[in-house]
Amino acid sequence: MDLVWSGFRQALALIVGADGEIWEILWLSLQVSGTATLISLALGVPAGAALALARFPGRGLVVSAVNTGMGLPPVVVGLLVTLLLWRSGPFGALEILYTPAAIVIAQALIASPIVTGITLAAVGQVPREFRLQLLALGASRAQMVWMVLREARLPMLAAVMAGFGGIISEIGASMMVGGNIKGQTRTLTTAMVLETGKGNFDVAIALSLLLLVLIFLVNWGLTAIQQRHPR
User: Fold this and answer.
1) Is 65 a residue whose pLDDT tops 60?
2) Which residues contact 189 (CB under 8 A, 6 or more apart)?
3) Could you list the residue range(s) of the whole structural domain that residue 151 is in?
């Protein structure tokens, strides 16, 4: 217990003292995961809406694939991205392996199925009669889709929370494609593992506290929006 309490005291001292390296790691994590979340929203929201509204042969198979992707292990994504970006891989010429860009790609691939699945569920909850009424009133299909997305916008905030929470706290893919390079690709989770292995429990605890606070603040803000604007 002495080790735990000592670690917490030293961690708080590092945070309050604004340790430069810790805040640099936090800022990089925010940049990488924030960018990956935006990309996953740009990909997942249209895909989820299309799956919810369209009917085509093989739709059940596609939905099953999306649901499977929601539980895809990050290390599998990390391996796939590593193979694609490897020196002899199809995108090796880009030379972005072990850079923040590679982490963004991996995290976006992890979050996109989550966003797609939650959007599919949210749009699917909008009554079919509502869509038919919009079309009967003269709305174009694009206008109907836009109105349905507006109707489902608050439940879809869960997609943002789940997507961001899933990638800001993952480690396998970030470690594999980023390399955990100091000052370049070291995120909160990868740095936490490194510092724990080195026995620097004060730094590891400080990083874990920042991670927990960050996730809480994002979820608290989005939850407040949901509750302030009931459907």
Assistant:
1) yes
2) 29, 168, 169, 170, 171, 174, 211
3) 21-228
pTM: 0.86
Distance (Å, whole) CA 70 – CA 63: 11
Q: For residue 15, tell me if it sits in a domain.
A: no
Residue 229 is classified by DSSP as: S
* Burial (Cβ within 10 Å: 0-12, 13-18, ≥19) of residue 16: exposed
pLDDT at 160 over 60: yes
Q: If we measure between CA atoms, which residue out of 166, 75, 190, 151 comes closest to residue 116? A: 166
Considering its fold, how many domains does the chain have in total? 1
Distance CA 96, CA 76 (A): 19
CATH number for 69: 1.10.3720.10
Confidence of residue 6 (pLDDT cuts 50, 70, 90): low
| 6 domain-assigned | no
What does the angle CA 207 – CA 75 – CA 108 come to, to the nearest 5 degrees?
Answer: 75
Six-digit token string for 174: 């970030």
Per-residue pLDDT band for 230 (boundaries 50, 70, 90) equals low
Inside any domain, residue 36: yes
